[in-house]
Design goal:
Elements: H1 2-22, E1 29-36, E2 41-49, E3 52-61, H2 65-81, H3 93-109, E4 130-141, H4 145-156, E5 162-165, H5 173-177, E6 182-183, H6 188-193, H7 199-207, H8 213-232, E7 238-243, E8 253-256, H9 262-274, E9 279-280, E10 284-290, E11 296-302, E12 306-317, H10 326-332, H11 351-358, E13 363-364, E14 369-375, H12 387-390, E15 395-397, H13 411-419, E16 426-431, H14 432-437, H15 440-443, H16 445-454, E17 457-460, H17 463-470, H18 474-490, E18 510-522, E19 525-526, E20 533-535, E21 541-547, H19 564-584
This protein binds adenosine-5'-diphosphate.
Length: about 575
């Protein structure tokens, strides 16, 4: 017995000791690590010397546009602090987590973990931030779609000194997370399909929501031309087919490559770099500076390391809407309280509307807040699987298995109809083949995987099975589909008069997707004229102040039609760039 104990003690000493020695420091060298990102693996590499990360870089990433940059932002901070105790990049949690996973993976290959990184004393930055004064011809506030377009157009029109300030660590705003389809009446794809369309028809469609006819006229008249500007000047590429959004009379919406905002945002960013337009990230505008005549002569902003006071001849506000500002939402529409989720990107807090309103700008249509009907019932993220509906190949049912709305009605009508159903949720029924044809599996596979994992998307070979899996009434669903297919045979939806081509729901496997509405677009905002001048409550121009995009109100009335936001930011973003340039020379 004594011998056994002695043996155990000596074994413990041997292994205890040697394993302790093996992990007491990290190996020198370069190590790669992999983490699972939104669109695939994020691969990074780190170089270690004396338990210190001396270099780190992204080797491979499928994360696009702004999201991809989150990895670089984290790696830079990791080098700076020699630790993994670094904040995730707000608004890019998924990519941030993938980067941390990859870092841990690389450290394990170096023979340890983050606890072995040498402690680095980081200088305290508790002293008062200094205020830096800068002077620029034009300051654009917000690097979403409208902001980048305005800055590009300003530069192309001869503005010598344009800067963009952006409060988030990356560009893109809501434009980045949108599908970014663009209504462009009279486009070539429509001609190929024999669809007759015109600026007048788009004008009529948009006007139905009660917006300002003058602004809508400008929007409709420039839509086609500005879609070409995006293609020819910014190099945005489009898919070879169109999408049919609810509330439009005809199918007219161009789809960017990959059917998401990463294509236009990525290309706009490239153009901004090409034109040497500085973008100050992590810099939040807080206040407009005016003179005694209430003309805008500058802007205050807060940066990470310093505050700024810009002296400028022109400020273009392109800060987006107020979808994430619950207090503002409740003030203007008490129904849209904290219980309602939001599809919006982080940073969309109504800042521009507040700043403009503080110097007397008029606001219009603030009570009109749009819910997007088909969102993740848990996070509020807009669901791209819904592209199948926009191609006409989906029906919507409730928990009882019954249709309850025209699937291509306006977002508002569908959202309100869903809110009235059991559990305030709806279910989209489609065949897997239809989802495939709509490009969902090609473009949005990670979303599909995530929804399946969480049980918000179920697949089965028969209608009864798919209904049971999702907890929807199976018998009624079968009956609903039978009746629907009958309508398709007859060429008319006798219940809800669904527009566009009608498609049968025939062969399994079937998909049933649970969804809920979430705040998507705020139609109200700063009142502008057709040249994007900001107007005060007496209808006078506030000199030196321009606004474009979702920060403005009055264009979309009580309901923005799908794919008209990109038309709006392009048309009015360009005009803002042109007007500000000509008036600040
Ligand atoms: P739009 O569609 O009108 O272009 P987006 O939502 O795409 O609007 O972009 C708005 C951008 O403005 C976002 O990138 C957002 O982070 C940025 N932003 C919002 N408030 C501020 C602010 N106070 N200072 C700087 N940037 C801001």
């Amino acid at each position: 017995m004594k011998r056994i104990i002695t043996l155990l003690v000596s074994l413990f000493l041997v292994f205890g000791c040697s394993s302790k020695q093996a992990v007491s420091s990290l190996k020198d060298g370069t190590f790669t690590g992999v983490g699972k990102g939104r669109n695939g693996d994020v691969k990074i590499s780190i170089s270690i010397k004396d338990s210190t990360i001396v270099d780190a870089e992204v080797v491979e990433t499928k994360e696009t546009a702004g999201y991809g940059e989150a990895s670089t932002i984290i790696l830079n901070k990791v080098i700076e602090t020699n630790s993994l105790e670094v904040d995730a990049v707000s608004g890019a949690t998924f990519t941030s987590n993938a980067t941390f996973e990859a870092l841990k993976n690389a450290l394990s290959k170096a023979g340890g973990d983050e606890s072995l990184l040498a402690k680095k004393v980081v200088e305290e930055t508790s002293k008062e931030k200094e205020t830096i004064k800068e002077s620029h011809q034009i300051v654009v506030v917000g690097a979403g779609g409208a902001g980048m377009i305005a800055a590009i157009e300003a530069k192309l029109n001869g503005a010598e000194d344009v800067v963009i300030i952006e409060k988030m660590p990356f560009v893109g705003g809501n434009t980045l997370i949108s599908g970014a389809e663009m209504a462009a009446p009279g486009n070539d794809l429509q001609k190929q399909e024999g669809i007759e369309d015109s600026a007048d028809l788009l004008y009529e469609d948009v006007l139905k929501a009660g917006g300002n006819p003058d602004l809508i006229r400008v929007l409709a008249d420039n839509a086609l031309n500005d879609s070409k500007w995006l293609s020819e000047v910014v190099n945005v590429e489009w898919e070879n087919e169109l999408m049919f959004f609810g509330g439009h009379s005809v199918k007219r919406s161009l789809i960017p490559l990959g059917a998401r905002g990463t294509e236009p945002v990525g290309k706009l960013k490239k153009k901004i770099e090409e034109l040497n337009i500085p973008v100050m990230l992590n810099t939040k505008a807080t206040e407009l500076i005016v003179n005694e005549k209430n003309e805008v002569i500058g802007l205050k902003a807060e940066g990470e390391k310093a505050n700024y006071e810009f002296e400028t001849k022109g400020v273009i506000l392109t800060t987006g809407g107020f979808g994430n500002n619950v207090e503002m939402r409740k003030k203007y529409d008490p129904n849209v309280d904290e219980s309602v989720l939001s599809t919006n990107a982080k940073g969309i807090d109504g800042d521009g509307i507040i700043m403009a309103s503080n110097i007397g700008a008029d606001l219009v249509g603030m009570e009109y807040i749009q819910l997007y009907p088909v969102c993740n019932p848990e996070t509020g993220a807009l669901l791209y699987v819904d592209d199948t509906r926009l191609k006409g190949m989906t029906i919507m049912v409730n928990k009882e298995g019954k249709r309850f709305v025209e699937e291509l009605n306006t977002r508002y009508a569908i959202s309100m109809a869903v809110k009235a159903q059991t559990g305030s949720v709806g279910y989209e029924l489609m065949t897997k083949k239809a989802a495939e044809e709509a490009g969902v599996l090609l473009n949005h596979k990670s979303e599909v995987d995530d929804l399946m994992e969480k049980g918000y998307l179920v697949e089965a070979d028969t209608l009864a099975e798919v209904a049971e899996k999702m907890g929807v009434d199976a018998k009624t669903l079968e009956e609903t589909v039978k009746v629907w297919n009958g309508y398709v045979d007859g060429g008319k939806d006798l219940e809800f008069n669904k527009r566009g081509t009608l498609y049968k729901i025939e062969e399994g496997p079937y998909w049933l997707v649970k969804f809920a509405p979430a705040v998507h677009h705020t139609m109200g905002g700063i009142k502008i004229d057709t040249q994007t001048h900001v107007l005060d409550k007496d209808g006078n121009v506030i000199k030196g102040l321009y606004a474009a995009g979702e920060v403005t109100g009055g264009i979309h009335g009580n309901n923005r039609l799908g794919s008209v936001a990109i038309t709006d930011i392009t048309v009015f973003g360009r005009i803002a760039g042109q007007t500000a340039t000509s008036e600040t020379k």
